[in-house]
Structure to design on (449 residues):
């Protein structure tokens, strides 16, 4: 492996021998005869690795190490010395040295240490490039927009991320509420800890408390061991409570206490546990209306909505349709040259997208598979109906034959069509059928669909 190494040593003969050995191993070597000369060379040469002796005549190698780490924390530094002690090694490693080598050493020892240091630097560089590429392909980490209002919303989300405030994300199903929650978490001080997501509508009412707060062994039938809840699992990070509007009133009260007191009581336990989590909640329902109807606690509503963020549906930002469609082509790794025909673009622009971004992604993926050649045509998109009232009961042909018809079979067929329309997404299928998600899941199990 090649790389530029700055070698700092005030011993002329040893410096020349070390330079020869490293050059022979394939490294590019720049030398300096003192600590200050080394720091000057570091600024001018921008080496990939620094190898420095401790005793340098002017300033010592540990001071050189500290100065280099101030200006370039990612540059590895190997410290060599003839006076190796445990205390000095500990101090060097504490200052950020990659390795500490005592004299005398053979040339292979230093060569291998340099090779490992440069491999680490290259790995870090690759990871950085990969992270930048992921962000480039995903726009604002997955929410590209050409809409000024949406851009302002994303800018606000990034600012909000730096705080510890509770965030309530609202919007229709498929608009990207969870994706926005992940952006907020990744831009927050809690980014190194987990983001734990909970779909409140997908968990049966009798299990939601245990799911959130955990339980102890024997708390109920089937509780064969202690189990942490999502609050405990998310400790130090963020807890994303999706479809928060589906929680029952009694559970809302317990959730309010957990958020306010930052403590939870596992089911079956008489002790409380402190939890450090940031709450991000989301819903496609109008919580203010539910509050007025007595179906959602007013105190919880205001506690969740410290920072409210509403994501507009795709039909209200039509300029994003083409931007997102092309973004999904990149994300799906479509072959070079694959593009939408002008007619396909017009079709997408005129379609109301009741399933929002999720539906658009599914349509683009399907079109990539069904296209003929490099051009994606309206036929490949498969968009029919979907306009206002297009899926209403008035548009259905519901004739009851003389011999009668099974209501159960009609219900099964509607569920199958909703699942097909939503690309298999249960939340979106439930929205299309205008029923809660847990009701749909019950029917799926009942009908064995």
């Amino acid at each position: 492996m090649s790389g530029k190494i700055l070698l700092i040593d005030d011993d002329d003969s040893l410096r020349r021998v070390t330079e020869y050995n490293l050059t022979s191993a394939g490294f590019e070597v720049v030398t300096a005869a003192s600590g200050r000369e080394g720091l000057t060379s570091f600024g001018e040469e921008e080496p990939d690795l620094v190898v420095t002796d401790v005793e340098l005549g002017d300033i010592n190698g540990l001071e050189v190490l500290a100065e280099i780490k101030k200006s370039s924390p990612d540059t590895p530094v190997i410290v060599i010395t003839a006076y190796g002690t445990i205390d000095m090694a500990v101090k060097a490693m504490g200052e950020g040295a990659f390795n500490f080598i005592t004299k005398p050493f053979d040339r292979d020892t230093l060569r291998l240490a340099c090779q490992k240091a440069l491999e680490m630097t290259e790995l870090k560089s690759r990871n950085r490039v990969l992270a930048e590429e992921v962000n480039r392909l995903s726009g604002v980490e997955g929410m590209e927009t050409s809409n000024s209002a949406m851009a302002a919303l994303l800018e606000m989300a990034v600012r909000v991320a730096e705080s510890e405030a509770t965030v309530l994300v609202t919007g229709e199903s498929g608009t990207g509420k969870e994706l926005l929650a992940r952006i907020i978490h990744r831009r927050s001080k809690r980014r190194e800890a987990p983001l734990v997501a909970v779909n409140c509508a997908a968990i049966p009412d009798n299990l939601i408390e245990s799911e959130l707060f955990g339980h102890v062994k024997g708390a109920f039938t089937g509780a064969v061991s202690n189990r942490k809840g999502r609050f405990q699992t998310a400790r130090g990070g963020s807890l994303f409570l999706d479809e928060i509007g589906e929680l029952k009133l009694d559970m809302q009260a317990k959730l309010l206490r957990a958020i306010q007191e930052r403590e939870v009581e596992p089911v079956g336990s008489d002790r409380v546990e402190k939890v450090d989590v940031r709450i991000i909640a989301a819903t496609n329902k109008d919580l203010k209306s539910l509050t007025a109807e007595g179906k959602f606690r007013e105190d919880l509503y205001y506690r969740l909505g410290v920072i409210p963020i509403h994501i507009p549906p795709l039909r209200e930002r039509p300029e994003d349709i083409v931007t997102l469609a092309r973004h999904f082509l990149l994300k799906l790794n479509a072959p070079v040259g694959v593009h939408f025909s002008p007619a396909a673009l017009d079709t997408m622009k005129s379609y109301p997208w009741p399933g929002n971004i999720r539906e658009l992604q599914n349509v683009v993926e399907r079109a990539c598979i069904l296209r003929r050649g490099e051009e994606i045509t309206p036929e490949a998109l498969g968009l029919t109906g979907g306009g206002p009232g297009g899926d209403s009961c008035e548009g259905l042909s519901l004739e009851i034959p003389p011999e009668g018809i099974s209501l159960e079979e009609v219900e099964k067929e509607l569920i199958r069509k909703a699942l097909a329309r939503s690309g298999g997404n249960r939340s979106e299928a439930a929205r299309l059928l205008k029923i809660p998600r847990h009701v749909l899941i019950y029917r799926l199990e009942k009908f064995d669909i």
Q: What stands out?
A: The first strand starts at residue 4 and ends at 8. Residues 211 and 280 are 17 Å apart (CA to CA). DSSP finds 19 helices and 14 strands in the chain.
